[in-house]
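Long-time lurker. I teach an intro course on protein structure, and each term I like to show students one example going from raw sequence to a predicted 3D structure in token notation. This year I'd like something fresh instead of my usual example. Would anyone be willing to generate the tokens for the chain below so I can use it in lecture? Attribution to the forum is fine with me.
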Amino acid sequence: MTSFNELMQKYVNTDYPVLLDLAKEAIRRLMPACRQVDPQHNGYYMLSSIILSAIGRDGVLTGLEKKLLMEAADLDAENVSKLLSMYDPKMPDLVDHFCDNMGDDLKADTIMLVTVFAAVDEKICKEETAFIRKLFE
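-- Reply from a regular --
Happy to contribute to a lecture. Here you go:
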């Protein structure tokens, strides 16, 4: 059985095009659930919370994280800036609550999306690791 740290390292070692495909697929599968819990924003606030929680854990937006955000969510630089300005420190708690109330498949998709964004810059810091572990609980 693969340990948590080995699993995280697997994502860190994964090539960018594969991470992009994983992110796009996770977004596609998560959007219906996001719309269900966030109908007033057509699911976009919930999805943004997931992504921003992943990016915001270490307090630094790397070039690869920005590129992944633009390509996975099909956003231009202006909309990425708008999205980043929406970050709220309460978002990680919202994501954790979302995970706790979703079925196993959607929980796995949420954790994978967070992990992909954490790993895309080829390292996962202790804050990102702690957040991912919390989502598993």
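Some talking points for your students: The CA atoms of residues 40 and 46 lie 11 Å apart. The helical segments are 4-12, 16-37, 44-56, 63-72, 77-85, 91-100, 104-119, 126-136.
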